[in-house]
# Entry
Amino acid sequence: VPFPWVFWAGVVWLSGAVAYLLLAAWRVWRFQSLLVHARPAPAELADEVRRLAAGMGLRSVPSAWLVPGPLPPLLWGFGPARLLLPEGLLGKLEEPGRQALLVHELAHYA
# Structure
């Protein structure tokens, strides 16, 4: 009886795919649980995000949130879209750098 290579290759591939999906789901769950510590951005920053989004022609705007700790700025799309910004970074950026960062992140939303 010949060895069923195709069957076992499929089993190995499917096992790897399931393992990867479980790992990705665990990472998303873990990150989502860290967002409990996020807080809405101050009104000035939220207004700046809305103004920049309007200038880019966006019809809707993600809410801006500040996250403690070392986290890259990112747009988080599980649930309502949120623009996550590390608290420590914003204090280090002057207006042109902050605007460039916000426009870059909003471009992902467009």
The helical segments are 5-34, 43-55, 87-90, 95-109. The mean pLDDT is 93. Residues 5-34 form the longest helix (30 residues). The beta strands are 39-40, 63-67, 74-76, 82-86.
